[in-house]
Q: What sequence folds into this?
């Protein structure tokens, strides 16, 4: 969402909240004005008839108006509480969203660091493994060379031929032949 769209959305939210608050205020004001008008009319009527019964009725109406004010105050308190609860829910939801975003950023950074460490460890282990395999192949090759030269069937044949050559040289020396 672009910055301009966020700004427009926040202005829209503020205007909507202001309209809602004005509607509530006008509703309560209209209710109060009606009650006030009723009390004034009854008061004027009571002044025109100055007798005991009418004064008693006026007292009852006055008590009714007081009760109405108390009901109005109670409903206003309830509306204020409901509005405060709604605002608290919105605030907590936004706060949770913000914390979730921060937690994802921090966790994302940890994941990237962990991936870097794992990749580095993989390359180190791969190079160590390759070096070990080179050493192993060279060692096996050297061992094979030693085995072929000292133990294998080729060595036996060479020794057999050398013994035959020495026996022939002895025989020739015994027969009187020289080396040259």
A:
């Amino acid at each position: 969402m672009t910055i301009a769209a966020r700004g427009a959305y926040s202005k829209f939210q503020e205007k909507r909240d202001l309209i809602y608050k004005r509607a509530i205020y006008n509703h309560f004001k209209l209710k109060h004005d009606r009650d006030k008008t009723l009390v004034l009319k009854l008061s004027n009527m009571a002044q025109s008839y100055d007798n005991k019964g009418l004064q008693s009725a006026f007292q009852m109406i006055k008590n009714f108006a007081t009760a109405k004010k108390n009901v109005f105050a109670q409903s206003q308190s309830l509306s204020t509480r409901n509005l405060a609860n709604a605002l608290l829910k919105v605030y907590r939801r936004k706060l949770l969203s913000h914390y979730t975003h921060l937690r994802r950023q921090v966790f994302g950074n940890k994941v990237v660091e962990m991936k870097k460490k794992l990749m580095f460890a993989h390359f180190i282990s791969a190079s160590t493994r390759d070096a070990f395999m080179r050493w192993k192949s060279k060692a096996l090759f050297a061992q094979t060379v030693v085995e072929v030269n000292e133990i294998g069937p080729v060595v036996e044949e060479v020794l057999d031929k050398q013994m035959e050559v020495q026996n022939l040289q002895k025989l020739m020396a015994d027969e009187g032949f020289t080396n040259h």
User: Anything to note?
Assistant: The chain has a mean pLDDT of 83.
